[in-house]
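User: I'm putting together a teaching handout on how sequence relates to shape, and I'd like one worked example. Could you take AMP-dependent synthetase/ligase domain-containing protein from Gossypium harknessii, show the sequence you're using, and then write out its predicted structure as tokens right after it?

Assistant: Happy to. First the sequence, then the structure tokens directly below it.
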Amino acid sequence: MDIRKGDIVAWPTNLGWMMGPWLVYASLLNGASMALYNGSPLSSGFSKFVQDAKVTMLGVIPSIVRTWKSTDCIAGYDWSSIRCFSSTGEASNVDEYLWLMGRACYKPVIEYCGGTEIGGGFVSGSFLQPQSLAAFSTPVMGCRLFILGDDGHPIPEDAPGMGELALGPLMFGSSSTLLNASHYDVYFKEMPSWNGLVLRRHGDVFERTSRGYYRAHGRADDTMNIGGIKVSSVEIERICNAVDSCVLETAAIGVPPADGGPEHLVIAVVFKDPDNSTSDLNKLRITFNSAVQRNLNPLFKVSHVVALPSLPRTATNKVMRRVLRQQLA
């Protein structure tokens, strides 16, 4: 993001997410100032704050941009002091980010993707390269990216394709132990090797385009990215299974919209009575939504509920959420 002395940096975040410490260190180590707003970034009050503080680098997540665009809460405010935006946390949408650039005289959006468990990013945009909207132009320093093909092995590094992302195991800041789980089982078990090194699992689906850019397509495993927050499907399913006595089981999946952008939370439901599939699914969606927001996170939103006669499972009876994701995308 080329933060430099004299910059004023704002990024709606918290210290429990990687971007909180990033904001502190990236600004202060480079002689810049942090612009801290006490309130929701989804209001016109925040828009005025960005104007009055003369923010020069504004960080966002796609869900925030989508809300700004739909409510037009930025209208009437002068964001001309911004020299760049940066985005992370979710898959971005080209149309929404073109709109965002238009709020600041078409200054660029630098994409950034990483994880708390690797202490930073692994792929990013760059001022030193031509950029493409809602895409990344380069692995970050010290990182190697691999896209796994249908056979589970890396496709050639210069070939276009889409699949689960794997990382080279040697990188700055990456975790080496976990407090409450096996580090090997979580990140390396059953992963392919490259040049004698076992690749590290990250869990995102990535695309490498024919022009050499990278695009994010959401989560590949049983973890979803809802509103920039990684959450286990099991946590959501545990809540949904208990809200209505007619529900036998559920499967929670994140489905990316056809035009790109943040994943939508979709609940597949199997009823105890197969003839109950004509039940009011919108009413059930509202019930699921209330329970998830009350018990897990008030920012999560159930977008759709789909009734199924049964859930797809492996031979060992594990729910194949990836199959559901493909069916409902």
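A couple of points you could highlight for students: The chain has a mean pLDDT of 89. The first strand starts at residue 8 and ends at 10.
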